[in-house]
Specification:
alpha/beta; 55% helix; six-stranded mixed sheet; globular; 229 residues
Length: 229
């Protein structure tokens, strides 16, 4: 195994160790590198704890061919070894903006699936890079301590084990595992604030202030979460 695969599996293992043998858990999989690497790690590590992982992919129906992409993800997960894969279609409302509407629809679908499958936890593939973006967006909005603390590793039924793992590591893991991740076209659309931060703001900060900005922002989030708690 590569260092990336080891790091991701080690990140997942402690969260699975907290659960009971026989538990069901959901793994949310978009088809991107982050969620596919997470799915592979949960599948492997869950065996030791006699936990049943169930994969869920959500089709937001926001672009042509989204149904075919969902089918591709479903096929990838079954080839990976998942015995059960759920593909859920949602309708996204845009009253609060496309990003927020898609997020709300996705979490509603995941919550519904968790209830249906009697899953104790839902694993999400957010990485350290996602955390850094969240903190910067909070700073731009003039948010308070709780918002600047970013995403929690554990929040109710939701688990984010990869918050100390980089996006580059998940890509490396997929390459090693022979998994072809999907690149969502929306991830290149700088009309979205998060994409603008990812593609334009953070790279400039790294260039002008030096490397390690994402790690520093993630560290700040952790410190602020302790303060807010």
């Amino acid at each position: 195994m590569t260092d990336a695969i080891v790091a991701i599996r080690n990140a997942v293992k402690p969260f699975l160790a907290q659960l009971e043998a026989g538990d069901n858990v959901l793994v949310a999989v978009s088809g991107g590198a982050d969620s596919l690497a997470l799915a592979a790690a949960v599948l492997k590590e869950s065996q030791e704890f006699a936990i049943t992982p169930i994969a869920v992919t959500v089709d937001h129906q926001l672009q042509s061919g989204s149904g075919e992409q969902a089918e591709k993800v479903e096929s990838q997960l079954k080839e990976m070894g998942y015995g059960k894969v759920i593909s859920k279609k949602v309708v996204v409302t845009t009253e609060s903006g496309l990003e927020a509407g898609a997020r709300d629809a996705r979490y509603q679908a995941l919550s519904s699936c968790a209830s249906q499958e009697k899953a104790t936890k839902v694993f999400l593939g957010h990485t350290r890079d996602d955390q850094a973006e969240t903190v910067l967006l909070g700073l731009a909005r003039g948010s308070g301590t709780r918002s600047l603390s970013g995403m929690a590793a554990e929040n109710g039924i939701y688990i984010r084990p990869l918050l100390n793992i980089t996006r580059d590591q998940t890509v490396a893991a997929c390459i090693e595992l022979g998994i072809q991740p999907w690149s969502d076209p929306h991830n290149g659309n700088t009309e979205f604030s998060r994409v603008k931060v990812r593609l334009e703001v953070l790279p400039v900060m790294e260039e002008k202030l030096g490397p390690g900005i994402a790690a520093a922002l993630s560290r700040s989030a952790s410190i602020l979460r302790d303060d807010a708690d």
